[in-house]
Write a structure and sequence with these properties.
Length: 339
């Protein structure tokens, strides 16, 4: 990035005499030194801080071209002064003395090319990662942390409501499960089940019609599927099987054998009560699982929204509107987007 300070002065067009040539050389040298001194004074003033970075910057003035005066009428004297910075060698302001008096300055901050300027070419990844991580942990906090309060509050409120719902349904399901387990222990027993199977469904008794579930050659004397699983091995299967499958129905205390429908023999009411309690417990656990799914969904929405909002803020910062002036086009406004 460079800045140009252009300073030009008119010279007479008459053919110069040797004495006038010498005077012109002296005048050109004096004008060049004056311009160089003016440039150094400007660069060291308070306004120079907007041209160059001030941290560890060193500048050196170099006279790039000799002060020679051509003999033609259109001759001109030029003095090139360049300032090079130790960290940014591309900042080279230029001062020229020519036939016309003009001043032109190209400010690096206004062109959006300074590394430490308002329009930085790259945005740190942490600007995206930290708010996104906050939104993944607790939805809405990423939006609030980046200044988008009203975008984050609804998600944060939804997160609180979701977890309240989750704990409510999970507690209800656990309580109902404890209730139906106590109910099964009170109204169903493995001993009663074995006795009724041997009496009414014995494969060795020719007087009992099928199904002949009772068979001492099988585990727990039951030729059935799924097999009987003791409560000590798997409590969940034990309580589920007690009310779910036909060959376990004879274990209920209000079960009665129906000779007209041996397979359809059932409990009068206790098994139906148990099924109702179990279904309500499962419904509450399903609702708790739905709450967990919503919690995952709100995190995905919050992370996506946070990344979009941060990206929009970056684009707004990289969008710059500044006045411009040109000799041909005149005054105007320039819209610049750095990316």
């Amino acid at each position: 990035m460079s800045q140009y300070l252009l300073l030009m002065t008119a010279l007479p067009l008459a053919p110069p005499s040797p004495r006038r040539k010498a005077s012109r050389r002296a005048a050109g040298l004096a004008a060049g030194l004056f311009s160089a001194a003016l440039f150094v004074m400007c660069s060291s003033s308070a306004n120079a801080s907007s041209w160059f970075p001030t941290d560890k910057a060193t500048s050196a003035l170099q006279v790039a071209s000799p002060l020679t005066m051509p003999s033609s009428a259109s001759a001109q004297t030029s003095l090139l002064v360049s300032s090079q910075l130790s960290q940014q060698p591309s900042l080279q302001p230029t001062l020229r003395l020519d036939r016309h008096l003009a001043l032109s300055v190209d400010d690096p901050l206004s062109t959006g090319q300074a590394e430490s300027g308002l329009n930085a070419s790259k945005v740190s990844r942490s600007r995206y990662a930290v708010p996104a991580l906050a939104s993944a942990v607790l939805p809405g906090t990423g939006e609030i942390a980046t200044g988008h309060f009203w975008n984050g509050i609804p998600l944060l409120a939804a997160e609180v409501a979701i977890w309240i719902g989750y704990f409510h349904y999970n507690d209800e399901g656990s309580q109902l499960r404890a209730d139906y387990e106590v109910f099964v222990d009170a109204h169903w027993s493995p001993e009663r089940w074995q006795t009724n199977l041997r009496t009414w469904y014995n494969v060795d008794d020719p007087n009992t019609p099928p199904p002949n579930w009772y068979n001492e050659d099988f585990p727990y004397n039951c030729d059935c599927s799924p097999p009987f699983i003791p409560k000590e091995e798997d409590p969940q299967e034990y309580y589920e099987n007690a009310g779910k499958y036909r060959h376990f129905r004879p274990g209920w205390d209000d079960w009665a054998y129906n000779p007209n429908d041996p397979l359809g023999s059932d409990s009068a009411s206790n098994r139906a009560e148990y099924i109702s309690m179990r279904n309500r417990s499962n419904d509450n656990f399903d609702n708790a699982g739905t709450m967990l799914g919503l919690a995952v969904l709100t995190r995905a929405i919050s992370v996506t929204q946070t990344l979009w909002l941060v990206n929009r803020d970056v684009k707004k910062q990289n969008l710059e509107l500044r006045p411009t002036y040109g000799r041909r086009k005149g005054a105007g406004m320039k819209l610049t987007w750095s990316y």
